[in-house]
Amino acid sequence: MDQDQARMLAALEEMQMRDSLRTFNGLVERCFTDCVTGFRSKSLTDGEDKCVTACAEKFFNHARRVGQRFGELSQKQQEDLMKRMQPK
């Protein structure tokens, strides 16, 4: 692997890390804002805990579905491209 490839790989890894952190921070902010209503205790109430759990599950299910759909569309584009490249 040459230096250019190594730099590109490092830049890609950094971008992926930033994206992961941005996604996680967005999840935390959204679920906290939607679910946490009081600050009288160090721990969450049962209702807040259930809300945060449901919020996180919904987020991860959505992210999984988006990733799955992206993969399906990407595969279809690849197949369409291969069909167009085949000799007639």
Explain how this protein is built.
The structure is a single chain. The mean pLDDT is 91. α1 runs antiparallel to α2. The chain has a single domain, classed as Helix Hairpins. By secondary structure, it is mainly alpha-helical. The chain has two helices and no strands. It is 83% helix and 0% strand.
In short:
This protein is an all-alpha fold and 88 residues long. It has helices at 3-35, 46-85. 83% of the residues lie in helices and 0% in strands.
Structural class: mainly alpha
Which word captures the global form? elongated
Strand % is: under 5%
Low-pLDDT residue intervals, each spanning 5 or more residues? none
Q: What's the SSE pattern?
A: HH
Q: What is the top-level CATH class?
A: Mainly Alpha
Approximate helicity band: over 70%
Domain Tim10-like: 12-71
GO biological process, one term: protein transport
Keywords: Chaperone, Disulfide bond, Membrane, Metal-binding, Mitochondrion, Mitochondrion inner membrane, Protein transport, Translocation, Transport, Zinc
Family: Belongs to the small Tim family.
